[in-house]
Specification:
By secondary structure, the protein is an alpha+beta fold. About 45% of the residues lie in helices and about 25% in strands. It contains two helices and four strands. It has helices at about 35-60, 80-95; strands at about 5-10, 10-20, 25-30, 65-70. The chain has a four-stranded mixed sheet with strand order 1-2-4-3. α1 (about 35-60) runs parallel beside α2.
Length: about 100
């Protein structure tokens, strides 16, 4: 994403820009950060579920067409699902 903005939401970096598509799109980047592939996949599943539950319904209701990239920082591996969900919910509310 060459153009857009970045928001640091706790253990997640959120990059966003207006989308050329007619719908919201989300990408998830989870670097290994010296973790096992099992931990990486668990974090990816958590982030995708949060996007499915929180962001996509909100974006479709409000007609938001953004491209969003979530990039996990090392601290995201220690964060619980409710913590990640709360941090991203606040960020998504500010984007809508």
């Amino acid at each position: 994403m060459r153009h857009g903005r970045r928001v640091q939401a706790g253990p997640i970096d959120v990059f966003y820009a207006t989308s050329p598509a007619d719908r919201a799109r989300v990408g998830v980047i989870v670097p290994l950060h010296r973790r096992s592939i099992v931990e990486r996949n668990r974090l990816k599943r958590r982030l995708r579920e949060i996007v499915r539950q929180e962001w996509l319904p909100r974006a479709s209701r409000h007609g938001v067409c953004l491209d969003v990239i979530l990039r996990a920082r090392p601290a995201a591996y220690e964060s619980s699902f409710p913590t990640l969900s709360g941090v991203l919910r606040e960020t998504f509310v500010s984007l809508c």
